[in-house]
Specification:
This protein has about 425 residues and is an alpha/beta fold. The protein contains 15 helices and 15 strands. Strand 4, helix 4 and strand 5 form a beta-alpha-beta unit. This is Glycosyltransferase subfamily 4-like N-terminal domain-containing protein.
Length: about 425
């Protein structure tokens, strides 16, 4: 009996950083599914990643990489292509045409991983054409961001952001996305906030958090000569990820002895844009000497590096009506896997705080006092044993294993395939 075949449509796929999609493709065969991937051919990887590429990734499944032409961020061509995608859905039309022509065997189901809304149109049209069900997975949606931050670079005129234009673009993306989501057989997303929002469009909406790959991220508790606070990832803006509580704590008299001891260091593994945001803030607190910036690392190297941290830093901000909403970084789950203390500044007072409390992996700081107390506690552990570690709630943590989560994907794929009533009517008609 042959395995069931799923066509995975994705905005990105390794070697570009795409851990959720990579895990699904990696572990689905364990659950009786044969994956085939279709994605964009990425020419300029630095424009698309928020960590370094996965240099060790080996292609052992069929992958169709669709060439949409040169599209380097910041060029006139990129801006025109963005406009063509917004108005005409250019890339999705080309992806559909390419797969209709080149795909060797029709799949049983389509699983579409969408960023903003690409490539939902392709999934809807192919599913209709082939008479098969499809599932949409939406992880990054424009409503989760503060004003304009859903774009890689804000649209400005003479240095001033064009908020009305960006809000119009936002509304257009939401309208297009909802048009297709309402026709999917099921929708999957990454946080309770996302699920509650998208369930208004498609009630058959399911939550599968991001997670960690246990084959890459695991504990290694060994003494380390420095008390290192480590951050990995990007900052889109300080309004979404605000480190000020940490800097206020480190500049306080209560932590002055530790800061001046030459043992405490903060290491930022991030991009140049994030460094430009952070350096003026660091300077305003007089903390330049304890902060060091590094290039992003390939995932395997990053996994080894965070094993040596005394504290793994997560940045967020309190959820508000204008955003951010439902943002749960993959990094928090990888921190769970390596059993290192997590410091979240500032607490979102929402899903990330709840995850930290339920798994007992660290502190979601709402005040400078919270940060000071947590840093002192971790420093005492480091003095006593040369490293820090948290046991956490093991059963809760294991729920976020990527391999286990892919079992949930497989269950939902089986449900839509085993129920012929899930095949819906024309995906170009919508009540939204």
């Amino acid at each position: 009996m042959r395995q069931r075949r799923v066509l995975i449509l994705s905005d990105l796929f390794p070697p570009v950083f795409a851990p959720r999609i990579q895990a699904v493709a990696k572990y689905l065969p364990t659950y009786g599914w044969e994956p085939v991937v279709a994605t964009e051919l990425v020419r300029h990887q630095a424009d698309y990643v928020h960590t370094a590429t996965d240099s060790r990734y080996k292609e052992d499944i069929p992958i169709y990489r669709i060439d949409f032409g040169k599209n380097e961020v910041g060029t006139l061509r990129h801006k025109l292509n963005f406009l063509a995608d917004l108005v005409y859905e250019r890339r999705e039309r080309r992806m559909e045409k390419a797969l209709q022509k080149s795909l060797k065997e029709k799949p049983d189901v389509i699983l579409c991983f969408a960023y903003r809304k690409f490539p939902l149109r392709t999934a809807a049209r192919l599913a209709k054409s082939w008479g098969i069900p499809w599932i949409a997975d939406c992880r990054d949606i424009v409503e989760q961001y503060t004003d304009g931050d859903f774009l890689p670079h804000p649209i400005t005129l003479w240095g001033h952001p064009l908020l009305k234009l960006m809000r119009s673009i936002r509304a257009r993306i939401i309208s297009q996305r909802n048009r297709y989501l309402s026709q999917a057989n099921k929708v999957i997303t990454v946080s309770p906030w996302h699920r509650n929002l998208l369930a208004k469009v498609n009630p058959d909406c399911h939550l599968i958090y991001n997670g960690y790959d246990h084959e890459i991220f695991s504990p290694r508790l060994e003494p380390h000569p420095h008390f290192d606070i480590i951050y990995t990832g990007r900052l889109l803006s300080l309004s979404m990820r605000d480190p000020s509580l940490l800097f206020q704590a480190l500049a306080s008299p209560e932590l002055s002895e530790l800061v001046s001891s030459s043992k405490l260091h903060i290491h930022w593994y991030t991009d140049k844009q994030s460094e430009r945001l952070l350096r003026p803030v660091i300077s305003s607190y007089g903390l330049e000497t304890i902060n060091t910036f590094h290039e992003m690392l390939p995932r395997e190297e990053m996994a080894r590096m965070i094993q040596s941290a005394a504290i793994l830093l997560q940045l967020s901000n309190r959820e508000s009506e204008s955003g951010p909403h439902g943002m749960v970084s993959t990094k928090i789950f990888e921190a769970m896997a390596v059993r290192k203390p997590v410091l979240l500044v500032r607490s979102d007072e929402a899903v990330m705080e709840q995850l930290i409390k339920h798994t007992r992996i660290g502190c979601a700081a709402r005040s400078v006092r919270d940060v000071i107390s947590f840093v002192r506690s971790c420093h005492k552990d480091w003095i006593r044993q040369g490293y820090t570690a948290v046991l956490g709630e093991q059963e809760e943590i294991e729920l976020f294993s990527r391999k286990r989560q892919v079992g949930d994907f497989a269950r939902l794929l089986n449900e839509v395939l085993d129920n012929p009533k899930n095949i819906r009517s024309c995906p170009y008609q919508s009540n939204h």
